[in-house]
From TrEMBL:
Source organism of the structure: Dissulfurirhabdus thermomarina
Binding site for ATP: S29, G30, G31, V32, D33, S34, S35
Name of the protein in question: GMP synthase [glutamine-hydrolyzing]
Segment forming the signal sequence: none
Keywords attached to this entry: ATP-binding, Glutamine amidotransferase, GMP biosynthesis, Ligase, Nucleotide-binding, Purine biosynthesis
Keyword Ligase: yes
Catalytic activity: XMP + L-glutamine + ATP + H2O = GMP + L-glutamate + AMP + diphosphate + 2 H(+)
Enzyme Commission no: 6.3.5.2
Pathway the protein takes part in: Purine metabolism; GMP biosynthesis; GMP from XMP (L-Gln route): step 1/1
GO cellular component, one term: cytosol
Subunit structure: Homodimer.
Domain GMPS ATP-PPase: 2-192
Top enzyme class: ligase
Amino acid sequence: SWDMASFVETAVADIRRRVGGERVICALSGGVDSSVAALLIHRAIGRNLTCIFVNNGLLRKNEAETVLAFFEQSELDVRYVDASARFLERLSGVDDPEKKRKIIGTEFIRVFEEEARRLGDVRFLAQGTLYPDVIESVSFKGPSATIKSHHNVGGLPEVMRLELVEPLRELFKDEVREVGAQLGMPEELIHRHPFPGPGLAIRVLGAVTPERLAVLREADAIVLEEMKASGWYRRTWQAFAVLLPVRTVGVMGDERTYDHVVALRVVDSVDAMTADWTRLPYDLLARISNRIINEVRGVNRVCYDVSSKPPATIEWE
Ligand code: XMP
């Protein structure tokens, strides 16, 4: 729209004026907000923006590849850091959700700072903060909020001394999506559901192991595939699989099985503050369930979560 076209023009001019010839870094999560912020700043200052994409080993199936493929052809300077092993090592044996979050947040800062230090004199840190994040005292944003919450918790990480560039501060989500379209972002990225910074770690209930992550990744990929194929993905706020820490009895051929349970969580929401479970058609639920049970080894049961928020939350941890 005209509004967002003129927003892009003004924002680009503002960024140029503010940043001049200095270096800006940003943490790219592949989410809509950080991606649009990066594209906008790139349009303003080109290669003086460096983006850091940290693979924490907790991403969904093919996620890192998809995000990197897009940014590679968009000419941004993106540094890919595969820190999976570090994150998984620190998470080993941890089953408390808040401990998981803290470990992941702290480790993220460490990795990010190591990369930032490598770049030398960086003056600015770009973040995809939106208007609702500005007005809410506690907000969960991917890597950026990890930085904020870490800041509140204690010691001042080096990156906190950087000056913030937050070009989306006055926008709502739908406006950010329009800006993304203006900047040539593919539909696939523009309409991505929110994905939490701690990633699959808070969807593998209980201890996180590479094996359990692999099971969840496969189940989750089926959920997303079927949601997209049926047109329901765009109609919902979030849709994902959760791996439960229980096993149940089943039967396969003449064999008794004793395997994992996957819960499906699909919700409607406008801002994640409240949410209602999505009334998906039974045949879609059946297809998702059959595919998960037939295709994902180690899963013999699928449940649909019919709780609204409040009192339940969107995530299970
Ligand atoms: P809940 O589970 O609190 O989630 O209803 C509300 C929204 O926030 C996301 N979420 C997080 N995002 N770090 C994030 O970046 C987190 O620790 C976190 N916990 C929940 C959740 O996916 C939903 O969109």
